[in-house]
Design a protein that fits this description.
The chain is 34% helix and 24% strand. The chain is α/β, with parallel strands linked by helices. The radius of gyration is 31 Å and the shape is globular.
C-alpha cells in the first residue's frame, strides 16, 4: 500500500510536492484523486499524480489532511492528457487541473474559532467570550475583528477557545425536488375545504412536486403536512439534475443524405468502428450539411458503445446546436461551458463522469470533459480563433482535440467551410484525411456576391453607413417579405470622438486606446478594461464647445441609419453589449428566426453557425476593417468572415444575395470571396506565408511581459531577450525577434512588451522551450512586479 503521494497543488507553481498518506487512506488513495494538503500557513486542494512506497524528499514530509474523493476525479487517460498539455504549453500542472474542473469541485479550508466548555464557564467575565457564545463558531477573520490575534492565542492557551481548520467542501448540495404522492383518500378524515380541495387535486395528480402545489394552493406546505400526519399523503425527496434546456426548435431530420454527405459519413463510421486514431478535415461549403454528418457520426459512436465530444467555438452557438442534438439524442447530451450556473455545470460534469451522459457539447473548456471510451471528437468551425485561450493557460482546443483523440484512439473531425490554413495545409500533406462537401445539402446555389465600391457609389444616409446599392437591395427584400442581415464588426455608435479644433481624441486612462462612443448610454467606453465615462460637453483639452466629431461607425450608428431609411422595418441589434447573457442572446435570435424581426444588425455573433431560412440578403457594411489589422492572419480572417457571413443568405426557398461595401474593391481577398473560391485564396495566401516563413511553414511562440512600471518591464524584457539569444545561438533553427512594445502597449494599467520566437519545426520549438523556460523562470523570477508568460502557437499578437 502506498505511503506517499505526489501532489500537484492548484496554484501557479511549476513543481509537484510529496506528502505522506495516513494509515486509514493507504488502501484507497489513487492517482487522479483530490486531496486537501497543508501548504505554508494555509491548506489547499491538490491533485494526486502518483503514489509510491517511498519518497526522495529529504526533509519532513507532511501528511495529507483529507482525502476528498472516493474514486479518482481524473481518469488515468485524462491525467495523462493534462500532463501533456501542461508540458507543451509550459503551465503548472496543478493550475491546469484546477481549471479543468467545475469551480464547485475545489475544496477549501477555513480556520474556525469556537468556545470550549471552560470558555463558557468564563464567559461572564469576558465580553468577547459572551459574544462568541451567542453567535456560535466564527471564522478567524471575524474573530480578529472582535479581539486581537494575541488575545485569541492567549485564550486558546488557557483552554477557553479552540482554533482549528475545518474543511469546507464547495460541492453544491445535490438538487432535490420534493414530491407529494397520494397514499389514501379517506374523506372521513378530512377537515375543512382547503384540505378537501388539495386532496382532490392529489387524487387527479398522484405524482406532483411540492413546488407545483404551492403555485395552486395557498399555505400548501402546512396543508400537506396535515395530510401526511393523517396518512392521506406521503412525501419523498427525489434527486433531480440541473441542466440547461434547449431554447430553439430543432429542424426536421433530412429524409436522405447527399452523395457527398453519405460518402463522408461512411468513412467516419468505418474509422469509429476500427478503434484507432484517425483525423479528418470535413471541408464543406456553408449549408452543405456538416451538422447532419456530425449527428450521424455521434450515433455511430454510441452504437459502438463509445462516447462523443463536440466542440463549438463560442457559447453563442451552443443553444442552437444543443437543440438539434437534444432532439436527436434525448437524455444523452451534457452541456459544458463557462456561462452555465455553478450548479448546472457541476451536475453536467458529474453525470458525464458517471457515464450517464455519453455526448458532451460545449465550448473550448469542454475539451477536459471526463468522458471515458471516447470514440469521436468533433471540432465545429475549427478555423475560429476563439478556440485559443487568450490568457493562461494559452491552450488551443482545436489542436488539443487532435492530441486527446490520438491518446484515446478516437476519430477526430475538424469541420469548416473555411478551414484554417494550418489545417488545410495538413490535409494536403496527408496529416489529415480530407472529406469534401462541395455543394449545399439542398438544391440551392451559393448566394451571388456583389462588391460595392464605396469610392464611386453614393450613400443613402447622411451618416455614410449604407450605400445606395445596398439600400435598394434592402428595400427589395423588405418588399418581398424577406429578412436581412447587416454585418459590421464594430459595436457602439462611433469608433471614437475627435476634436476638430485641437485634434484631441479621448482615451482610456487605463489603456492606450481611444474610447468608443456609445450613444444610447451617453458614454465613452473602453472595450478592453470596461472603463466608462460620460460624454464630455466640451473638448477635455481645448475646452471648446461643439468640436467633438464622431468618427467611424458601429452597430448603434447602423441601427440609427436604418431607422431613418426604413422607418417601418422591425430592426434588432446583436453584439456583446446587448446580448449580455445567454438569455438575451436566445431571445434576439429566436425573434429573428420566427420572422418577428426584419433586419438584424450584428457583429461576429451573427456571422456564423446560424440557419435562418428567411434571409435572402446579407450586407457587409465595411469589409476593410479586418483587412487593415496588424496581423499576418488578417487576410485569412477577412476571407473566413466574409465567407461565413455570406453563407447566412439563401438557405431557404428563395436565392440569396450578398453585397460587400469596401474602399479596396480589387483586393485579392475580396476577389476570391466573391467567387466562393477557397482553393484559390488558400493557394495565394500560402505562397505568401511560405515566402515570409509564417505558419504553417514555421512554428511561433510569444514571450509576453507586463508591469505597472515601464522601466521594470523594459529591464525584464531585455534580460529575457539576452537569455533567449544566448540559448538560440546554440540552436541555429530558432530565431528571436524583439523585445518590442506590444501593439496594445498599455492595457489595464500595465505596460506590455513581447518577444517573438520562430522555428521551422514544432519539435525544434518544443525542445528549445523545454531548455529555456526554466532559465527564464530563474532569471525573471527575481522581479516581483513583472508578470511573464510563454504563449506557444499564439493567435492573438495584440
Amino acid at each position: 500500500m502506498p505511503s506517499y503521494v505526489t501532489v500537484a497543488v492548484g496554484l501557479s507553481l511549476d513543481k509537484e510536492f510529496a506528502y505522506s498518506v495516513p494509515e486509514e487512506w493507504r488502501s484507497v488513495v489513487l492517482p487522479g484523486m483530490r486531496v486537501l494538503v497543508p501548504f505554508g500557513r494555509t491548506s489547499t486542494t491538490g491533485y494526486v499524480t502518483a503514489v509510491s512506497d517511498s519518497t526522495q524528499f529529504d526533509g519532513q514530509v507532511k501528511p495529507i489532511l483529507e482525502l476528498l474523493d472516493s474514486s479518482p476525479t481524473f481518469t488515468s487517460h485524462l491525467l495523462q492528457f493534462l500532463a501533456w498539455v501542461a508540458s507543451y504549453y509550459h503551465v503548472p500542472l496543478g493550475e491546469l487541473m484546477r481549471k479543468a474542473l467545475p469551480p464547485s469541485l475545489h475544496a477549501q479550508s477555513r480556520t474556525i474559532v469556537s468556545v470550549t466548555t471552560a470558555g463558557r464557564a468564563a464567559a461572564d467575565r469576558d465580553p468577547f467570550l459572551q459574544a462568541l457564545c451567542k453567535s456560535g463558531p466564527m471564522t478567524l477573520r471575524r474573530a480578529q475583528a472582535l479581539v486581537s490575534l494575541s488575545s485569541l492565542r492567549k485564550q486558546e492557551g488557557e483552554g477557553l477557545l479552540t482554533i482549528a481548520k475545518v474543511v469546507h467542501r464547495r460541492e453544491p448540495a445535490a438538487a432535490f425536488e420534493q414530491w407529494v404522492r397520494l397514499a389514501a383518500l379517506d374523506k372521513s378524515r378530512l377537515s375543512g375545504p382547503r384540505q378537501t380541495e388539495l386532496a382532490a387535486y392529489l387524487f387527479e395528480h398522484p405524482h406532483v412536486s411540492l413546488r407545483a402545489l404551492k403555485q395552486h394552493f395557498k399555505n400548501a406546505d402546512r396543508i400537506v403536512r396535515i395530510l401526511v400526519e393523517k396518512g392521506i399523503a406521503s412525501v419523498e425527496r427525489v434527486r433531480t439534475w440541473r441542466a440547461p434546456g434547449a431554447s430553439f426548435p430543432a429542424p426536421p431530420v433530412p429524409s436522405e443524405l447527399t452523395a457527398a454527405q453519405a460518402a463522408a459519413l461512411a468513412r467516419l463510421e468505418s474509422a469509429i468502428r476500427s478503434s484507432g486514431f484517425q483525423p479528418f478535415l470535413l471541408h464543406g461549403v456553408t449549408g452543405s450539411g456538416k451538422t447532419e454528418v456530425y449527428l450521424r457520426a455521434a450515433d455511430a459512436a454510441l452504437a459502438a458503445g463509445k462516447t462523443a465530444l463536440v466542440l463549438v467555438p463560442e457559447i453563442a452557438l451552443t443553444p442552437q446546436l444543443m437543440a438539434i442534438f437534444q432532439a436527436r439524442f434525448p437524455g444523452k447530451i451534457a452541456i459544458l461551458h463557462s456561462a452555465l450556473g455553478e450548479g448546472q455545470r457541476y451536475d453536467q460534469w458529474c453525470r458525464t463522469a458517471s457515464g450517464d451522459l455519453p455526448i458532451v457539447l460545449g465550448a473550448r473548456s469542454a475539451l477536459f470533459a471526463p468522458l471515458s471510451n471516447l470514440g469521436l471528437v468533433v471540432v465545429d468551425e475549427e478555423h475560429e480563433p476563439s478556440f485559443k485561450q487568450d490568457d493562461r493557460p494559452f491552450y488551443n482546443a482545436r489542436d488539443l482535440a487532435l492530441v486527446r483523440g490520438m491518446m484515446a484512439g478516437s476519430t477526430v473531425v475538424l469541420g469548416s467551410a473555411t478551414p484554417s490554413l494550418e489545417t488545410f495545409h495538413n490535409s494536403t500533406i496527408g496529416k489529415l484525411t480530407a472529406l469534401r462537401l462541395p455543394e449545399r445539402a439542398t438544391v440551392r446555389p451559393l448566394p451571388d456576391v456583389t462588391i460595392v465600391d464605396l469610392r464611386v457609389c453614393g450613400f443613402a444616409d447622411t451618416d455614410r453607413v449604407v450605400s445606395k446599392p445596398l439600400a435598394a437591395a434592402i428595400g427589395d427584400a423588405l418588399e418581398t417579405r424577406h429578412q436581412v442581415i447587416l454585418f459590421i464588426n464594430r459595436r457602439g455608435f462611433a469608433s471614437f470622438l475627435l476634436c476638430e479644433a485641437c485634434g484631441c481624441v479621448p482615451k482610456c486612462p487605463n489603456c492606450a486606446v481611444s474610447l468608443t462612443y456609445h450613444k444610447s448610454a451617453g458614454q465613452l467606453r473602453c472595450h478592453y478594461c470596461l472603463y466608462a465615462e460620460r460624454v464630455p460637453p466640451v473638448c477635455p483639452v481645448c475646452r471648446k464647445e461643439d468640436t467633438l466629431q464622431q468618427i467611424g461607425s458601429g452597430t448603434e450608428r447602423a441601427m440609427e441609419s436604418l431607422a431613418a431609411l426604413f422607418p417601418s422595418a422591425r430592426c434588432a441589434r446583436l453584439d456583446s453589449s446587448v446580448a449580455g447573457s445567454t438569455g438575451n442572446l436566445t431571445s434576439i435570435l429566436s425573434s429573428f428566426r420566427k420572422g418577428e424581426t426584419d433586419i438584424i444588425v450584428g457583429t461576429q455573433m451573427i456571422a456564423k453557425g446560424h440557419d435562418f431560412p428567411g434571409v435572402t440578403l446579407v450586407g457587409v457594411l465595411n469589409a476593410d476593417l479586418s483587412l487593415s489589422f496588424p496581423d499576418f492572419r488578417a487576410a485569412e480572417r477577412t476571407f473566413q468572415l466574409l465567407t461565413q457571413v455570406a453563407g447566412r443568405a439563401g438557405r431557404g426557398e428563395s436565392p440569396g444575395r450578398v453585397l460587400v461595401q469596401t474602399y479596396m474593391p480589387f483586393h485579392y481577398v475580396l476577389a476570391h470571396a466573391q467567387r466562393h473560391d477557397f482553393a484559390g485564396f488558400a493557394a495565394e495566401e500560402l505562397d505568401q506565408r511560405r515566402m515570409r516563413a509564417f505558419p504553417p511553414f514555421s512554428c511561433l511562440a510569444l514571450v509576453r511581459l507586463s508591469s505597472e512600471d515601464l522601466a521594470a518591464t523594459q529591464k525584464c524584457a531585455q534580460e529575457a531577450a539576452e537569455c533567449l539569444n544566448v540559448c538560440a545561438s546554440r540552436w541555429s533553427e530558432v530565431s528571436v525577434v524583439g523585445p518590442t512594445m506590444a501593439p496594445l502597449a498599455y492595457l489595464r494599467n500595465r505596460y506590455r512588451m513581447q518577444i517573438l520566437l520562430k522555428a521551422q519545426e514544432r519539435n525544434t520549438m518544443a525542445r528549445f522551450l523545454r531548455n529555456v523556460v526554466p532559465v527564464l523562470r530563474e532569471r525573471l523570477g527575481r522581479s516581483k512586479t513583472v508578470r511573464w508568460d510563454v504563449d506557444v502557437d499564439p493567435v492573438n499578437f495584440m
